[in-house]
Amino acid sequence: MSSISSVVSINAQYTIYSAAKGALTRNLACEWAKDNIRVNAVAPWSIRTPLTEHLLDDEIIRKEVVNRTPMKRFGEPGEVSSVVAFLCFPAPGFLTGQVICIDGGMSVNGFSMG
């Protein structure tokens, strides 16, 4: 598991955390490829879980998340777990070193006024 902050800047206070999340995936993929071990990560944005319920209750945060997300909603847990399950199958056998954003388009949205 990674974080969307490994791909886009979310909070300037988390620079080291953000850099490490993405770099570790890519470096381990290169290091372990010789042993036929694939290393990929999923990077969720705002997913509706018990840990994010307080965000849904805060109108300012909820509006900011929706404004930054082209799909205009929080993600659902099943939308993350299905990607994780896919990565466990043999089908993506040539996929390694990737950070897969599960973010409703947030990481490619750029600056948006709503």
Automatic annotation (TrEMBL):
Gene3D superfamilies for the chain: NAD(P)-binding Rossmann-like Domain (3.40.50.720)
Protein name: Tropinone reductase
InterPro entries for the chain: NAD(P)-bd_dom_sf, SDR_fam, TR
Family per similarity comment: Belongs to the short-chain dehydrogenases/reductases (SDR) family. SDR65C subfamily.
Swiss-Prot/TrEMBL keywords: NADP, Oxidoreductase
UniProt-listed Pfam families: adh_short_C2
Provenance organism: Salix suchowensis
